[in-house]
Design a protein that fits this description.
By secondary structure, the chain is mainly beta. Helix content is about 10%, strand content about 40%. The chain contains two helices and twelve strands. A twelve-stranded antiparallel barrel has the order 1-2-3-4-5-6-7-8-9-10-11-12. The longest helix has 14 residues. It starts with 16 loop residues before the first helix and ends with a helix.
């Protein structure tokens, strides 16, 4: 399996409390499968943690977010057409056999000003907002209903200060947050912009 090196903290810099409490994932918007569409997520230790392989066309109607062993964790389906288009995300559970069950988790809809609104299944209204979701930029933020930033995505930067390509991103989330939720949002954003 592929492995990248985690960022080493510079000895001369003292990280702020905010940076120390965050956890970073590297998201490479390329599939590890030759001629496949998808993305690969590297954990803080530099090893492959998750992957998405879409063997169909870019922006397919259904993709699966898998762990490194190939077990589906999340199923993402595109529903509706035009302005009524939405992405429904379900958690996948395995009962020990090849049977797989999916429970609805959250829905993503386009919102005004190039953003997206995230609503949890069974919840009332919007829970999160993805700012800059429908814009062709690599940097965007996920905010809660009160406007506080709960996750950030930016282009990956090496310790020497070199900014990597548009397809190598860093997702920064707090350690107490559900990391799978925010990783799922990165995949949905890739589907919205047809980069997967």
């Amino acid at each position: 399996m592929a492995k990248i090196q985690p960022l080493a903290a510079a000895a001369s810099q003292s990280p702020s409390d905010y940076q120390r409490s965050q956890r970073a994932y590297t998201v490479w918007m390329k599939s590890l499968v030759f001629n496949g569409n998808g993305c690969t997520v590297y954990g803080p230790d530099g090893a492959v943690a998750f992957r998405v392989d879409n063997y169909g066309c870019r922006g397919g109607r259904e993709v699966f977010f898998m762990d490194r062993a190939g077990n589906a964790l999340i199923r993402i389906r595109r529903k509706g057409f035009g302005v009524f288009r939405r992405w429904e995300v379900c958690r996948c559970t395995h009962n020990g056999h090849e049977d797989e069950e999916s429970t609805p988790w959250f829905t993503v809809r386009r919102a005004e000003k190039g953003g997206a609104a995230v609503g949890m299944h069974g919840g009332a209204g919007t829970c999160y907002r993805v700012d800059g979701c429908c814009v062709r930029k690599s940097e965007y933020k996920v905010s809660g209903v009160d406007g506080t930033v709960v996750a950030e995505v930016a282009r990956k930067q090496t310790p020497a200060g070199v900014v990597l390509g548009e397809d190598v991103l860093t997702l920064t989330v707090p350690p107490e947050a559900d990391h799978l939720l925010f990783l799922g949002l990165v995949v949905v954003r890739g589907l919205i912009n047809r980069s997967l």
